[in-house]
């Protein structure tokens, strides 16, 4: 397409030149210039040609005069690019002293001053010279001020000063000058210091920037909203946060668990139970089965009946069996609690199950057995082998976990054969 446009343009110029030549040839005109006793007589055509020739000569002379300067500038640019490349490579490879030297030589070039100072600050901070890093950040030009702010915040976080870093980033966010990386950093740091409100504000700004992948954004969103639900000050605030979630968000097991825990802590046990029960009807989730047994001492009989009904869906779920053991322990039904906990340990040993077993034995009055269960909980948490319980423990070690097996199906509804045991 460009070739045809060029050909058409050349044809138009040729046609205009031919027409102009015939028009000027009929009457070339007469030009007389008198200046301080000098007289110049010529035709208009020659005068125009002379002006064009003089302009071309002046242009060529200027190019010749500027050629050494341009050559020097190109050479300096090539050296700067080589130093920038070498400095960034050294920074990525961990050769921080060399990176600082190479990038420091570029701070005198206006076009590279900002990036070079940022690289110097990163290299100095990486090798532990925060004073040099701060001096470099102080010299960063205004065009790179936002990037310098993020590096300064990162430096504070690495120094264990997460609170001041959050304050710095929060102020920049309020002023609208926090870049996406700073928004992500503020989201994660605010979560770490227990400020979900600030994390939520930063997350909303990060979502508007559309600079991170949907998967990462969803992960951050779940973490932030889980923290916000877990720290809701009162019932009204909790319900407002929960109702503000989309339908898809209210199906995340992490958010359901956070809401249920906080609702139960605030006395809304029925709301907590309802959300978990509805979620388990849609799709079975081990974490929610575990949380169901950790909602406190309210509605124990109703929760135990519901949990026992779930055995038809997940008969060998360690989380469900542990929750049943916990619920019957709180009800004082020690034999039934032991039965569920023994079965849970036969399926899978977890520190949580051993801890609940210890609570059960302690409530029954078996202090020795309870102490052994608590020790086993610590051992399992450290990845060590547990000690067998004495007496009835010999019987527990041979529990047949297939006794309560019913038909299990995979996510596509296809029946699964029980594993050989």
What does this structure look like?
- By secondary structure, the chain is mostly helical.
- Among the domains are: 87-140, no CATH class; 146-225, Serine Threonine Protein Phosphatase 5, Tetratricopeptide repeat, CATH 1.25.40; 308-406, Tetratricopeptide repeat domain (Serine Threonine Protein Phosphatase 5, Tetratricopeptide repeat), CATH 1.25.40.10.
- The protein contains 20 helices and four strands.
- The strands form two sheets. It has a two-stranded antiparallel ribbon with strand order 1-2.
- It is elongated, with a radius of gyration of 39 Å.
- Residues 392-406 have low confidence and may be disordered.
- Its main location: membrane.
- It is a multi-pass membrane protein.
- One of its GO terms (biological process) is porphyrin-containing compound biosynthetic process.
- It comes from Dokdonella koreensis DS-123.
- Keywords: Cell inner membrane, Cell membrane, Membrane, Porphyrin biosynthesis, TPR repeat, Transmembrane, Transmembrane helix.
């Amino acid at each position: 397409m460009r070739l045809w446009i060029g050909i058409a343009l050349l044809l138009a110029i040729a046609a205009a030149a031919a027409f102009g030549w015939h028009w000027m040839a009929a009457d070339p005109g007469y030009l007389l210039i008198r200046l301080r006793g000098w007289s110049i007589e010529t035709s208009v055509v020659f005068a125009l040609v002379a002006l064009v020739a003089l302009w071309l000569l002046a242009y060529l002379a200027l190019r010749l005069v500027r050629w050494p300067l341009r050559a020097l500038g190109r050479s300096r640019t090539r050296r700067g690019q080589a130093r920038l490349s070498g400095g960034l490579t050294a920074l990525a490879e961990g050769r921080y002293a060399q990176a600082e030297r190479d990038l420091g030589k570029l701070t005198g070039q206006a076009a590279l001053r900002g990036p070079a100072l940022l690289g110097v600050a990163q290299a100095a901070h990486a090798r532990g010279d925060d004073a040099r890093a701060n001096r470099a950040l102080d010299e960063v030009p205004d065009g790179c001020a936002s990037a310098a702010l993020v590096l300064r915040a990162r430096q504070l976080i690495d120094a264990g000063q997460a609170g001041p870093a959050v304050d710095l980033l929060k102020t920049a966010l309020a002023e609208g000058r926090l870049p996406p990386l700073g928004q992500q950093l503020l989201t994660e740091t605010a979560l770490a210091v227990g400020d979900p409100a600030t994390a939520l504000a930063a997350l909303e700004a990060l979502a508007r920037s559309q600079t991170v992948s949907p998967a990462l954004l969803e992960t951050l969103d779940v973490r932030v909203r889980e923290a916000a639900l877990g720290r809701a000050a009162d019932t009204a605030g909790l319900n407002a946060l929960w109702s503000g979630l989309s339908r898809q968000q209210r199906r995340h097991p992490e958010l359901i668990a956070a809401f249920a825990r906080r609702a139960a802590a605030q006395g809304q046990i029925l709301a907590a139970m309802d959300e978990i029960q509805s979620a388990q009807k849609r799709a079975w989730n081990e974490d929610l089965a575990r949380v169901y047994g950790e909602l406190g001492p309210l509605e124990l009989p109703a929760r135990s009946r519901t949990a026992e009904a779930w055995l038809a869906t997940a008969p060998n779920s360690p989380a469900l069996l542990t929750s049943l053991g916990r619920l019957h322990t709180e009800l004082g039904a020690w034999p039934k609690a032991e039965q569920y906990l023994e079965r849970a340990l036969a399926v899978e040993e977890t520190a949580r199950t051993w801890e609940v077993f210890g609570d059960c034995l302690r409530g029954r009055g078996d202090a020795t057995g309870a102490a052994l269960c608590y020790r086993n909980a610590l051992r399992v948490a450290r990845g060590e082998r547990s000690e067998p319980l004495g007496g009835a423990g010999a019987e527990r070690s041979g529990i047949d976990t297939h006794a309560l097996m019913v038909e299990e199906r995979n996510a596509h509804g296809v029946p699964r054969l029980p594993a050989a045991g």
